Amino acid sequence: MRTKLLLGNWKMNKTPKEAIEFASQVGDLVSLSKKHNVEIGVAPTFLCLVDVLSHAPEGLIISSQNVNEHDHGAYTGEVSASMLSSIGVTHAIIGHSERREYEGETSLRCHEKIVALLKEKMTPVYCCGESLDTFEAGETSSFVEKQIREGMGGLSKEEASKVVIAYEPIWAIGTGKSASSEIAETTIKNIRDVLKDMFGEETSETIRILYGGSVKPNNVSQYMTCPNIDGALVGGASLEPDSFKALLEGMINA
Ligand code: PGA
Q1: Is residue 62 within 8 Å of residue 53, measured between CB atoms?
Q2: Of the candidates 224, 197, 221, 219, the residue with the CA atom closest to the CA atom of residue 208
Q3: What is the rounded distance in angstroms from the CA atom of residue 218 to the CA atom of residue 215?
């Protein structure tokens, strides 16, 4: 049985003061999530990680939004997995479509980042998803399959089982136009089939696959009733404690 995960992606939002305010208000949520065997976490900017870590209730997962594939050296502006791990960050979002689009991040580079994170015993949250043009051309499965094969190729079964995948159709991110649960479940089932082909059935059944893209308190439940969807990666609706709580309740009550 895969443990469900609710992860808030704060993107470039919140000053350290605002991030601390959030972290100080979610103690009840962590207790509630533990009671229902759901994992919850947030991904603040690099700038806020230390403050969030020191004010967050125990059990709240703290993730970064990116990581560099190298361990240290002349990479101005970058942060490595060992640095994140040294302060207690356990997860990192990799290959978000905004990074693929604005920073030219490729699936092959994401692969290197996944390897760097696994080396530090961290959990990569590897994002994939297609553009509206690709979706309308009916090429979603082949497009996403390539992202999965390039990002996950070469990992051992054990390593692959530690990766969390997030399927986020680009046309649904921040647009308010979420993918229907049927579309999300179909693509996520396809991803699981690709993983089965790459790593075998047993491993593919242990890998958690989240849906992301305009997940809100009023639609989160519909995804959670789908057999292959193991949680949600949420941007806008994760920014306020009340809405984050409503997302968790929606997940639990699904
Ligand atoms: P959204 O963002 O929930 O605001 O659509 C999701 C994401 O980009 O991870």
Answers
A1: yes
A2: 224
A3: 8
Q: Is 168 a catalytic residue?
A: yes
Residues with pLDDT less than 70, the chain: none
Contact 38, 251 (CB under 8 A): yes
The DSSP letter of residue 178 is P
Question: What separation in Å is there between the alpha carbon of 129 and the centre of ligand 1?
Answer: 12
| Residue 169 Cα to ligand 1 middle (Å) | 10
The whole model's pTM is what? 0.98
- How many angstroms separate the alpha carbon of residue 182 from the centre of ligand 1? 19
**Catalytic site includes residue 91:** no
Residue 244: how many other CB atoms lie within 10 Å = 22
> Would you say the CB of residue 234 lies under 6 angstroms from ligand 1?
yes
CB atoms within 10 A of CB 136: 11
Of ligand 1's listed atoms, the one at least distance from the Cα of 178 is: 5
Q: Which of 71, 194, 72 is nearest to 126 (CA)?
A: 194
93: closest CA among 72, 77, 79, 75? 79
Q: What is the pLDDT of residue 1?
A: 84
Q: Is the CB of 170 under 6 A from ligand 1?
A: no
Torsion of CA 135, 239, 65, 99, to 10 degrees: 40
